[in-house]
Every structure is written in C-alpha cells, then in structure tokens.
C-alpha cells in the first residue's frame, strides 16, 4: 500500500466496497445523494461542500444557497459522515478587518486542517466580485476571517495541509466576473497566510473532457509518491458546461510540477442527481477524507449545483489509474 503521509486514522470513514462487477476507479455510494437540497428549512440547494474529521466524528462547511438564492456557507456536524446537522444560519466571521469582513456572498468552501486549526478557503465576494476568502476555526462554532488571499477575480482556492519549503501553499484559478470560459490551476506561496507571491503555473485545460477550464478540488493528499489531487474539468457542449473530475500527482517539494495527470475523467455526470438540478451536468468535488491506515478515500462532491453525494476509492486505485492513463 502506498503510504499516506501526515494523515490520520479515520476508522469511521464512510465506506462501501466497490460493487461486484464494477471496474470503475471511483464508485458511487448506493444511497446518493447524501445531503439533499431541502436539508435545512431555508435551503434551495446544498452542494460543493467541505467535510473534515472532528472530535471522533465529522464537521464541515457547506455551500447553502437559500430560497432567495443568496449564496452562503454554513457550519455543520455529523457523527457518521452520512447524517449531517447543518445550521440554517450562515457562518458569521469575526474579524478585525472591517473592510474585508462585510459579507456579500460566499461559496464552494474547502477546509484544510493544519495542526489543531481548520482553515476555510472559499469563493468570497469583495466589492461584489469573486476572490479567495480565508478564515479559520478551532471548533466550528466561532469563525475568524483573515485577509482575502488575492484580488478579484479568482476562485477555487485550496490550501495545502502543511508548509512546503517553509511556506504555505495555495492552489487557485484566476478567472473573470462571469461563468469564466477559461481557467488554469496556479500555485501561490506565503510565509504568513497574508502575503502571497512566487506564483507558479501548474496546469491548464488539455483533454476534451476538461478543454474549457480546470480548477482544484479537495485538499491535496500527501503520499510517498507525491501530492495526489482530484480536480474538476469543464467541457463546453452544445448544451452548456459539463463538469467532470479526475486526478493528478504533483511533485512533493515543487507541487507546480505535474508528475501524472489523468487522460480521462474518473467521475462525470451520468446519474439522475448529477444530470438534473439547478445547473445540469455538474460533478464538483470539494472533499476527500483519507484513512491513513487503509488508504481508503471518501469523496464528497456537489451534484448539479443542487445536492451533495459520496463516492469511494483508494489511494492505490487512483495511483494505478494514473500509472496507466497519464497524459503527461
Ligand atoms: C462554477 C461555480 C460552482 C458551480 C459551477 C457549475 O463557476 O459557481 O459553484 O458548481 O460553476 O455551476
């Protein structure tokens, strides 16, 4: 088994064995979606959300669009990773920076644990324009907002789970004000989570399934072979965008160097709950929980901008796929 570095044991990781006769690298939970759109009294949809192990169970930050169609992020908890209690109120960040902390909208959170602290990155409106917001919590009750990471326009900010060469490292996807028709993954580095620079290009659109734009997905998984990441890719069809996802392996010390990258998607919209919803044909991963003991991975992904689903794989299954199906 390929070693997962810096990870933790998650004995209660949500898990189902690969169904008999299924050869897929990633397979879906048979009772998807795990979080339905009307999970809280005022939710229109709950999708693209982040879950982490917390106090023997799980906690998370969830993208909740309400019935007025405001886009917000909410805290939630779960004992088993399947049944969630999600607040019907948005997170209200405490902050010493009034210019930054006036809430406008926020979406697509990721949560990265570094030490005992949980950092939240999300697409945060500043001047009603999207950029990367950054905050932290120690208990998922009180949340603190820090400086925005970048100027608008940017989305899909994902923080690595440790410093690399003494610096914090974040992936992001510079974009425009709309439903951006382009997008590459970049890396930026920071000594203090406030000042970001030393930007590096990681990768851009390539194969047909990801030919319009790509963006980082969940928090990178550190393995003895490199950083394993899942990322989404978008194809423009005659009927609009199609969001699928695949995997890549990045160099452990210079993560802007791509060692392997999937030629094919691993999950694409094909189940009813992925093809039908507020935005049809979207599978959008924001979480990968990894049990360091077994290499099992549980992926939470948004479906059709409406609900949240679960899928399963293992570190070795994804690396084996990359070994035999890499485009680089
Ligand atoms: C992106 C983001 C995601 C969304 C996707 C598909 O630009 O807004 O939150 O899932 O579009 O609508």
Task: List key phrases describing it.
single chain; 328 residues; mainly beta; Tachylectin-2, Chain A; five-stranded antiparallel beta sheet; 21 strands; 46% strand; globular; binds beta-D-mannopyranose
Task: Characterise the protein shown here.
The mean pLDDT is 98. The longest helix is centred in the last third of the chain and has 10 residues, at 315-324. It contains three helices and 21 strands. The strands form five sheets. Strands 14, 15, 16, 17 and 18 form a five-stranded antiparallel sheet that branches. A hairpin with a 2-residue loop joins strand 2 (43-54) and strand 3 (57-66). It is globular and about 55 Å long. With 328 residues, it is mainly beta. It has a single domain (41-324), classed as Glycosyl hydrolase domain, family 43 (Tachylectin-2, Chain A, 5 Propeller). The protein has helices spanning 98-101, 272-275, 315-324, and strands at residues 27-28, 43-54, 57-66, 71-78, 84-86, 106-114, 117-126, 129-137, 143-145, 154-159, 168-174, 185-190, 197-203, 213-216, 221-223, 226-237, 240-250, 258-261, 283-291, 296-303, 307-314. The site of beta-D-mannopyranose (BMA) has 10 residues, from strand 6. Beta-D-mannopyranose (BMA) is lined by residues 48, 107-108, 179, 243, 279, 282, 284, 302, 305.
